[in-house]
Write a structure and sequence with these properties.
With about 325 residues, the protein is an alpha/beta fold. The protein is built from twelve helices and 14 strands. It folds into two domains: about 150 residues, 3-Layer(aba) Sandwich (Rossmann fold), CATH 3.40.50; about 160 residues, L-2-Hydroxyisocaproate Dehydrogenase, Chain A, domain 2. About 45% of the residues lie in helices and about 20% in strands. It binds ligand NAX.
């Protein structure tokens, strides 16, 4: 068997981590032959809860889980890690402006970036889940200059999974029959879920989704809105935000980053923009990517309609504003 790798989950006492830790420790991300040492990072008031999570992980009797390291010290949490799931963040409280939320999170992701820079492996893969995920990833990377920018990403996989699931449901096919649906831009309500490059397996034949669905008003209307507002719908029903599905999406994201994408398939990830598709350079923007040897590459030359251009512009503008606000908070600190 391989040597164990160290993997950290922040916000380890929270609700997403409660599902995520189990999925990782089962081998669903790094493989059934890869032993793991799990680092659980949270803040001091959560130490008691963290202890309970450690007990439960022990009680799961998981063969791949060699050791669990609960801590509130980022320098311990990030020490020698090969993969980092940054789930913990400051939640938006009632009446909080975006600037206040950004400001609180900038402080968290600055500390974590600095710790990653000091003690993590230089090829660590960092997935930011905690919101505002795209801009938190940008801030974190900013404070970890010794780790390549390509190793930081933000999660839009939950949005991708939601979009694919909507389409599978509408067409009455299994989820495995829907491919290459894209999430562009920010993990926020300005995101652009785009089915125009996607394909769907119907009666043994892969067809363009647009052709199979044959309802442009739906694809450019309620499909997009349903995905954009799905998080709010789950909160409305559950009185708590998406957790199980967010954990599954985080596993999917890291799994594909670690293991690669199948030929002809792509997935969406928030990554540093090189200006592709007219997006603002230097923000963390969700693009369709293909992955090989643990390196992602933005899928290029996809046709972009005027409708899509308008949507990309809105979400890109929001990300540029978030970046500018985050940078102004950083400058004033
Ligand atoms: P919880 O409030 O259940 O858990 C968050 C945990 O993070 C808490 O235990 C808290 O103590 C911890 N924490 C706070 N500051 C920390 C720090 N500096 N270091 C380490 N731990 C810290 O939230 P949960 O439902 O688990 O959601 C976590 C984050 O995921 C939130 O920011 C949420 O908005 C975000 N989400 C992002 C999604 C995405 O698709 N990118 C979807 C799901 C989710 O809404």
């Amino acid at each position: 068997m391989a040597e164990p790798i160290r993997v950290v989950v922040t916000g380890a006492a929270g609700q997403i981590a409660y599902s995520l830790l189990y999925m990782i420790a089962r081998g669903e991300v790094f493989g059934k032959d890869q032993p793991l040492i799990l680092h659980l990072l949270d803040i001091p008031p959560m130490v008691g809860v963290l202890e309970g999570v450690v007990m439960e992980l022990a009680d799961c009797a998981l063969p791949l889980l060699r050791e669990v390291v609960p801590t509130t010290d980022p320098l311990v949490g990030f020490k020698d890690v090969s993969a980092a799931f940054l789930v913990g963040a400051m939640p938006r409280k009632e009446g909080m402006e975006r600037k206040d939320l950004l400001s609180a999170n900038v402080k968290i992701f600055k500390v974590q970036g600095e710790a990653l820079d000091k003690v993590a492996k230089k090829d660590v893969k960092v997935l930011v889940v905690g919101n505002p995920a795209n801009t938190n990833a940008l801030v974190c990377s900013n404070y970890a200059p010794s780790i390549p920018k390509e190793n930081f990403s933000a999660m839009t996989r939950l949005d991708q999974n939601r979009a694919a699931s909507q389409l599978a449901n509408k067409m009455g096919v299994p989820i495995t029959s829907v491919s290459n649906v894209i999430i562009w831009g920010n993990h926020s309500s300005t995101q652009y879920p785009d089915a125009s490059q996607g394909t769907i397996l119907i009666n043994g034949e892969w067809k363009p989704i647009a052709q199979a669905v044959n309802d442009n008003a739906y694809l450019q209307g309620s499909f997009i809105e349903t995905v954009q507002k799905r998080g709010a719908a789950v909160i409305g029903a559950r009185k708590m935000s998406s957790a199980m599905s967010a954990a599954k999406a985080a596993c999917d994201h890291m799994h594909d980053w670690w293991n690669g994408t199948a030929p002809g398939k792509f997935v969406s990830m928030g990554v540093f923009s090189d200006g592709s598709y007219g997006s603002p350079k230097g923000v963390v923007f969700s693009f369709p990517v293909e992955i090989k040897n643990k390196q992602w590459k933005i899928v290029d030359n996809l046709p972009i309609t005027d409708f899509a251009k308008g949507k990309l512009n809105v979400t890109g503008t929001e990300l540029q504003e978030e970046k500018d606000e985050a940078m102004s908070v950083l400058d004033s600190n």
